[in-house]
Amino acid sequence: MSTEQNTAPTTTPDSQSLAETGLHSLKPAPGSRKPRKRVGRGHGSGTGKTSGRGHKGAGSRSGAKDRSGFEGGQNPLQSRMRKLRGPNKKTSMPFERFRTATQPVNLDDLADRFESGAEVTLDAMRAKGLATRKDVPVKVLGRGELQGPLTVHAHRFSASAQQAIEAAGGTVVVVED
Known about the structure:
By secondary structure, the chain is α/β, with parallel strands linked by helices. The protein has 5 helices and 6 strands.
């Protein structure tokens, strides 16, 4: 009796299925795809007779549509809001609640980027990456501390920022544009 062993490579079901995986064998996840609802196919179907549209009214007629923003006859949001006259009153529109008319620069930003005794102009701030939006006024705010005196040019200053700059021996210059 010979004791020959089968020398053919054995493949497990897992390795075989991995080898056959490709674009040709992709399927959607079970339960993720449903057949379309077939309406108007008899009483027993659950969506027969009125086809899920209810009885009478505009919604039951052909061509019925629901506007976006329609609130069922209630005065809609865009009608309840105040109307501002003029073509460019966007800064005071109620939908833009967080729009600010200035761009902030804090004292700790100035302390990090400028040496003691430096002259901080709008162009110098822009060069250092602060107040980069053009034609938007710059307001200096009081977060942080200054180690040395600075001459700061800006459109506006908060009261705490002005006190801190002057307490450090610096000066405040209000820019008029």
